[in-house]
Design a protein that fits this description.
CATH class of the largest domain in chain B: Alpha Beta
Number of strands of chain A: 0
Radius of gyration of chain B: 23 Å
Largest sheet of chain B: 6 strands, mixed
CATH topology of the largest domain in chain B: Rossmann fold
Number of helices of chain A: 16
Structural class of chain A: mainly alpha
Helix content of chain B: 25-40%
Distance between the termini of chain A: 17 Å
Strand order of the largest sheet of chain B: 10-11-12-7-13-14
Strand content of chain B: 15-25%
Largest interface: A-B, 26 and 38 residues
Radius of gyration of chain A: 22 Å
Oligomer: heterodimer
Shape of chain A: globular
CATH superfamily of the largest domain in chain B: P-loop containing nucleotide triphosphate hydrolases
Shape of chain B: globular
Strand content of chain A: under 5%
Helix content of chain A: over 70%
Structural class of chain B: alpha/beta
Number of strands of chain B: 14
Order of helices and strands of chain A: HHHHHHHHHHHHHHHH
């Protein structure tokens, strides 16, 4: 008597086939756009693939982008599990940068093994703090988290510009940026590690943070599915009434969720500020918080899916810049359009083909059973 | 569906106004509605606003709406859930009148008594397929029940006399005011002792649900509640629900799908809902998933949950098996007091028998049980004492021996001075 709902399709279909179909459709539509601007779509695809994974430096760039997307994707996913839509990853990452910068500027003479965990903690705490205010307003006052987190992105941008330009600006500098961090507190780069083995991989920004991203994936998996706090968060996300029945505080669950979510977004700063820039610039986040939404959607809010989706988006980002370089008709703006199409199909429209695919597979299952 | 803020007349006209301007159409509709009310004996004030009407009358508006549209076939889905026995009799009278005019009624119900009372033919469905269609006159309740379940069932479980102990639950002057400021429970006082089942009867929507939720810590209340002599006032919100669980109060909620379980969770996760903090299923930081699963497995075995698979999604179980998961969770924790709301709603007859037997076993084991049900049959089958609620108050208390359907029905309708 098991009721079969539309979601009752094999997991591998939901996690693999559906995203793949979405991706193919997005690429087909991209092909149309490419033809429209007078270029050959197959050339473009080849250039994209080669630019993303064709040579060691490209792979390094792809992994670097993927690292950021893992952090923000996990951030969005954790919030999703409580039924919250955290659009504020951008601002939380930005403020996380302040935490990293303060630690690296203040403890410049300390050894990296000590500064690294402190900087990670600072990034997480600053990101969490920036998520706390919208979380509190949602939990206690019912202000919608989507609205408040979006607004907090703007507030973060203004606040950080002020802090960088008026407080942290390097003495005697015109550019809006902080002083450089001491060489001792810069994260080890992949290229240096590979160079030690005698392998030259060019100059990709890939650094130690990518390992931190893997740790974050494991942490989220354990937190959401193997702790009572994750259990409470998921209960609140699925049914507020069940949470009330179970004596779960909705307020506490919302605030805890958003603190974890904000902390994960904050970790982007470890990769970008401590790993790549080695100083605090303005406007360095570049939409990474928003891509996290698409990554979380495509990755079905599961760390494994998110890691895979993040790699795909990392490849798109890296490969996209290569296309603009290779094919003159496809400008940088065109690449943004192409990336937007992929995000649209894999993220926002992810349920477009799912019902049809589900019907197809159920028919097959029934036929097999008969 | 009715529009809450519209009058009866507006609701009846909705969608077939017949003209862009309402003036004339309204006048016509008014006379037509008056004729219908009269000929079917369904009196109603056409100017009453829907949300001011009791549920029984709202149902009457729904029926009038169908008649107004010239219905030849009237399909009623569990129409008596919101009615007193007397109101149900009135409804059936109206249905017979409708039939006498040469029209058709399809009555969907799980109450065998209703089928025997008003229908001419009956079709039994099981698992989405038609099992049989028979003339009502040539069948019996027992036979219907057997067809519904696919095996012989006992319609009435044997009940030993109660051995009543001390007071477990003592409720004094309890009031519940809901979010919109309406008093749902008014000055309710009663006790439940160990080894007895106290039933709360009443037409649905008369405060029973709110009373049960308040006692389970899901609603704010004022007044005194003592469990085993200890006051549970002071805490509120989620802390109260936790406090009550610590005092060994178990609660089988009325709405198992939205409250008692979490549909997308695996069965073993739903099986710890409310006990997620229990040290027994937690390590220092991580949950002990293996223990949770094995515990769920043994609970499912002892309550005969099918399929016996703790990893299956909760929503994939049938209503009866979902309810068994909830009952197993709440009963297997050795509660002092068991609060039970609509334990057999949407559950097939075979599972009803099982659930009733389990509740009586709990009673025999000396537990105090408070049972809220809109099914009079269920209350009469299980309860030792019966409290009747009407409009948020307890309007009568009857020992089981003195309770009859007629007496309870009058109390449920708010007729004073009986019993």
């Amino acid at each position: 008597m098991a009721a079969s709902s539309p979601t009752d399709i094999p997991r591998w279909v939901d996690y693999l086939v559906v995203p793949l179909v979405n991706l193919v459709v997005a690429l087909l539509l991209t092909g149309v756009v490419v033809i429209a601007v007078g270029a050959n779509p197959l050339d473009a695809l080849q250039s994209l693939a080669f630019g993303a994974v064709g040579y060691p430096e490209a792979i390094g760039f792809t992994l670097y982008y993927a690292t950021n997307f893992i952090f923000t994707g996990l951030s969005v996913a954790v919030a999703f599990h409580a039924g919250l839509f955290n659009i504020g990853g951008e601002g939380q990452a930005y403020v996380g940068g302040l935490g990293v910068a303060l630690v690296c500027l203040g403890l410049g003479s300390w050894p990296l093994v000590i500064v690294f965990p402190i900087a990670v903690a600072a990034a997480a705490i600053f990101g969490a703090a920036w998520a706390f205010i919208p979380a509190y307003l949602q939990a206690k006052r019912g202000s919608h988290i989507v609205i408040t987190t979006i607004m907090f992105n703007f507030i973060a941008a203004a606040l950080m510009t002020y802090i960088v330009v008026h407080v942290l600006i390097a003495p005697g500098q015109q550019a809006p940026r902080s002083s450089d961090f001491a060489p001792g507190v810069r994260l080890p780069m992949a290229k240096d590690v590979m160079a030690a083995f005698g392998i030259d991989i060019g100059e990709p920004p890939l650094n130690l943070s990518s390992l931190l991203a893997i740790v974050a994936c494991v942490f989220v998996w354990l937190f959401i599915w193997h702790t009572r706090w994750g259990y409470e968060i998921r209960t609140v996300g699925h049914s507020e009434r069940a949470a009330r029945y179970a004596g779960i505080s909705r307020t506490r669950a919302i605030i805890l969720t958003m603190l974890v979510s904000g902390a994960l977004s904050g970790l982007v700063a470890v990769n970008d500020i401590m790993g790549v820039h080695h100083y605090l610039p303005v406007g360095w986040t570049g939409g990474v918080g928003f891509v996290g939404i698409a990554v979380a959607l495509m990755g079905r809010n599961h760390p494994v899916g998110i890691a895979m989706a993040a790699l795909l988006f990392g490849a798109l980002y890296q490969g996209g810049s290569e296309i603009a370089f290779d094919i003159p008709q496809i400008t940088k703006e065109m690449v943004v359009v192409i990336q937007g199409l992929v995000i649209l199909f894999c993220g926002a429209l992810e349920n477009m083909f799912k019902p049809q695919i589900a019907v197809l597979f159920r028919r097959r299952a029934i036929a097999a059973a008969a | 569906m009715l529009v809450d803020d519209f009058t009866v007349l507006e609701n009846v006209m909705l969608g077939i106004e017949g003209a862009p301007l309402l003036g004339e159409a309204t006048a016509k509709a008014r006379t037509h509605l008056a004729e219908l009310s009269k000929s079917y004996g369904l009196e109603i004030d056409p100017n009453a606003v829907i949300h001011d009407l009791p549920v029984g009358l709202q149902q009457r508006v729904e029926i009038l709406k169908a008649l107004y549209r010239g219905a030849e076939i009237l399909i009623l889905d569990e129409p008596t859930a919101v009615l007193t026995p007397q109101e149900a009799d009135q409804l059936f009278l109206m249905l017979r009148r409708f039939r006498a005019l040469g029209k058709t009624v399809i009555l969907i119900t799980h109450k065998l008594r209703e089928i025997m009372a008003v229908t001419d033919r009956v079709t039994v469905m099981r698992g989405g397929a038609v099992v049989a269609t028979v003339d009502t006159a040539s069948t019996s309740r027992e036979q219907l029940a057997e067809m519904m379940v696919g095996r012989k069932v006992l319609l009435r479980v044997e009940k030993a006399p109660a051995t009543v102990g001390g007071v477990v639950l003592d409720v004094g002057h309890l009031d519940v005011i809901d979010g919109s400021g309406v008093a749902r429970v008014k000055d309710v006082s009663f006790t439940v002792r160990s080894g007895e089942i106290v039933g709360i009867a009443g037409v649905s929507g008369n405060g029973q649900s709110e009373l049960l939720e308040a006692l389970a810590g899901m609603r704010r209340f004022t007044g005194e509640v003592l469990v085993n002599g200890k006051a549970v006032t002071g805490a509120h919100g989620h802390a109260l629900a936790r406090l009550l669980r610590r005092q060994r109060v178990s609660h089988v909620p009325e709405d198992r799908q939205r409250e008692g379980l979490v549909g997308p969770f695996a069965a073993n996760e739903s099986a710890i809902l409310g006990y997620q903090d229990d040290p027994a299923c937690n390590g220092l930081i991580l949950m002990d998933r293996r223990k949770i699963v094995s515990r769920c497995q043994s609970e499912m075995q002892s309550f005969d949950v099918r399929p016996c698979n703790p990893g299956l999604r909760t929503a994939a179980f049938s209503g009866g098996n979902q309810q068994k998961i909830v009952l197993a969770r709440e009963m297997e924790r050795d509660p002092a007091l068991l609060l039970v709301g609509q334990p057999t709603r949407g559950v097939d007859i075979g599972a009803i028998e099982f659930i009733h037997r389990r509740l009586l076993e709990m009673r025999a084991a000396g537990k105090a049980i408070l049972l809220v049900s809109v099914e009079l049959d269920e209350i009469l089958a299980l309860a030792d004492r019966i409290l009747v609620m009407f409009d948020g108050r307890i309007v009568g208390e009857l020992p089981r021996a003195e309770a009859t359907e007629a007496k309870l029905g009058l109390l449920m309708a708010g007729v004073e001075g009986h019993a």
